[in-house]
Design brief:
Helices cover 0% and strands 46% of the residues. With 155 residues, it is mostly beta strands.
């Protein structure tokens, strides 16, 4: 398997940003990120791929793999990550094949998702008597719906 930079990814190798298996740090809710990898066959016989299983975070999705890669040929497959939950995420794709001693071929992927920093600004209000009802409204810098807080001013 070749990474997004064309360098070989060893089976079970730790995820790496240069090879595209470390999807980096993303903000929750941003667009899905897809990296394309390549399965190469440097042998002199067909490479049969019987399937892929995923373990770990369900936010990673491995696209379709070819059933056969001819000798000297390569075939691309995509791995997508949907940054829908904050935290560190990892998954492993086990690619079942017919190469003795090399099945399954493990590709490890990781990503980190964080919340967007937001500023909330409340408009200034004049001094109010303790018995007044004060309503505050604000809008987050990201455009998130405004919040309303209501206080009866009870001491």
């Amino acid at each position: 398997v070749l990474g997004t930079n064309g360098a070989a990814i060893a089976s079970g190798e730790t995820a790496s940003q240069p090879k595209g298996t470390d999807f980096g740090s993303l903000t929750i809710g941003c667009a899905q990120v897809t990296n394309v990898f390549s399965i190469t066959n440097s042998g002199n016989m067909n490479l049969a791929i019987s399937g892929v299983t995923t373990s770990g975070s369900a936010l990673f999705n491995c696209g379709d793999l070819p059933a056969v890669v001819s000798p000297g040929a390569s075939s691309n497959f995509a791995v997508a990550f949907n940054p829908a939950e904050t935290g560190a995420h990892s998954a492993s794709f086990s690619i079942a094949n017919d190469v003795p001693g090399a099945s399954p071929y493990e590709v490890n992927v990781v990503a980190t998702v964080s919340k967007q920093q937001q500023a909330i600004n409340f408009p200034a209000i004049a001094d109010q008597p303790v018995t007044s009802i004060v309503t505050l409204a604000a809008t987050a810098s990201s455009g998130v719906r405004h919040s309303t807080c209501r206080s009866t001013g009870t001491p």
